[in-house]
Design brief:
The chain is mainly α. The protein is 58% helix and 7% strand. It has eight helices and two strands; from the N terminus they run H-H-H-H-E-E-H-H-H-H. A two-stranded antiparallel sheet has the order 1-2.
């Protein structure tokens, strides 16, 4: 609805930026009254949907009772739990990476093997949640073994955007495997250097 409002504004030559539909920006929109009249139903729908998302997010977060590492919120933990279902169905780390679509594709011919970009064949919702969690892990888990391994490269200002994305995907894949190991009782957060939230 917000994007439709932006598109409607552009159709008539007005650029609506930021949260044009918010309480702070709505009264001072620099557009004519007739455009405000056209935007009002879209704004009403956007605000109602935002409220529904907020309420549902709070309900989902409230159902997160498992201990979580600091930086992994209730919503992310629930997305992981609900999308995967049973972590015991994976027999090894390769199966975890394959299910998530975070493993590299391979271009092979004869003796030549060349890994490519991630396959993205797995669950996109989990891939998104894990990549978001990877950025938070960098901030809240300095002692985590994978953060120690890649933190300097990721946060280095000389590292270009594409390389940062590759490193974040590697961190997300590694964390997914570690989370699988934690959920199936193969290891403990303390052994991995994860600080659990209170």
């Amino acid at each position: 609805m917000v994007q439709r409002g932006r598109g409607l504004g552009l159709q008539y030559g007005y650029r609506l930026t930021g949260k044009w539909h918010g309480k702070r920006n709505w009264p001072q929109l620099p557009v004519p009254a007739w455009l405000i009249e056209l935007l009002t139903p879209l704004r009403t729908a956007a605000l109602a949907l935002h409220e529904q998302v907020r309420v549902q997010t709070a309900k989902i977060e409230a159902q997160s009772t498992q201990p979580k590492p600091k930086g992994l919120g209730g919503l992310t933990e629930q997305i992981l739990a609900r999308e995967v279902g049973d972590w015991n169905r994976f027999g090894n780390r390769r199966q975890v990476g394959s299910y998530l679509g975070l493993c590299p594709r391979e271009h092979s011919s004869g003796q030549r093997q060349q890994p490519g970009s991630v396959t993205k064949c797995g669950n996109p919702r989990l891939r998104w949640a894990l990549c978001e969690a990877a950025w938070r892990l960098l901030k809240y888990q300095p002692a985590y073994r994978l953060c120690k391994k890649w933190r300097a490269q990721i946060l280095d200002p000389r590292t270009l955007g594409g390389r940062k994305k590759q490193l974040i995907v590697a961190l997300a894949r590694g964390f997914a495997v570690d989370w699988w190991r934690i959920c199936t009782g193969q290891t403990t957060p303390e052994k991995l250097g994860l600080v659990m939230a209170d």
